[in-house]
Amino acid sequence: MKRCWMLIVCGALLWGGFVPETAALEVPGETIGEKSAETEKKAEPEKEEQPSEIDRILSGEEAIPLVSSEELENHLNRQVNEFLEWFNRERHSLLVFLLGSIGSLAVGGAVGYGFKKLFEKKADPRTNSLRWQLAWALTQPLLLLLVLISVFGFMLPVLQSLPTLYVWDARLFFTCATAIAAWAGLRLIEVLSVRMCAYAKRQNNNLDALMVDITRKVLKISLVTLTVMFIGQSIFNLNITTLLAGAGVVGLAIAFASRETLSNFFGTLVIIMDRPFRCGDRIQTDGIDGLVESVGMRSTRILTDDESVYTIPNSKIAESNIENISRRGLIRFAFTLGLVYDTSDENMAKAMKILHGIVDNFKGQDLPAYTPRIFFDTFGASAMNIRVIMWLKTASFETEEAWRTEINLAILKQFNEAGLSMAYNTVTNYVKFDPAALPSPAAR
Asked: Is 0.90 surpassed by the pTM of this model?
């Protein structure tokens, strides 16, 4: 039982880095460290010709050196004694580290809870003044960074007594600090996005929600990429240049395999630079009439009046004709009315006058370039047609439908009151009687 306990302690010490570099297990006549050193010295000039020690052991030319239980027990005893000496020497530092870490976590948690309650009293700190927005963005990262610095400061005396672990713990600390700084940067980007969205809602500016959304995504991707590269290059001493060169070759191969994706990405850039529409605008493109819900890096989502959502690749939108109804603020409404052929010219003029009274200055003063146009169009197959072209002063689906219904009801009511008959498709057949076509009396 005592030997098992010693083996467990030895394994823990080896894992924690307490094995001295000069320690060596002794075997009868020599130690493993001495034998290894002598073997390396002998094999060093003949590395390329003679097989290694492992090869000789595997081939059976040399036996595995054995360690007796007494020597192993002595070695473990030395390791335990070294650990106990280190613990007795650093117990004050360990106690300070334990109490200081617990205190730092407790204080940080209490302060964070207090700030959380303070922010809850505000409906949404992100919609308040810039001071509250910055406080909301930086409070949690700063508290976490202070707690991390405090814990590492209390642990520093302990780490200095363990040179093997000190390097890796220092790298871990700087990695965590960099990650916290990146988190704070992401929250500041959210604050910037909120401010830009508020500015985009104002009139007479060159910024819209589409630019805000794309800018936010690009800033976040750039920040995360730079953070990863900084951690790899500065903290873990990775050769980022070689990795980027390899990524460039791989990226070139991926570019050939994903031409459509790249085409949609460049279509997104065209939409951003040209800005044919904004999020929320009503547009018509390729026979689709709807509201722009969102513009992503690959496609644009459009909501139509029948509650259907169309996802159109940005490359296709960039190459299509786009009619921005919202930017003009008017919807073209054209229709044709047919009167029966019994209608006199006076009644035809009367019908056109009634139509002018209904559609002229409908729901507001008409602009000079968008005054309604009413004219006697054609003599159709079943009716004499009157053509009406007008513009509704709205870009909303619901308002457009309500106004069309109002116009149609007004036309129906006033035409009936004036005794005007609207035509429908009819066909009249005339049969001509020819007595010569009848058979003779004798034939009958």
From this structure: no
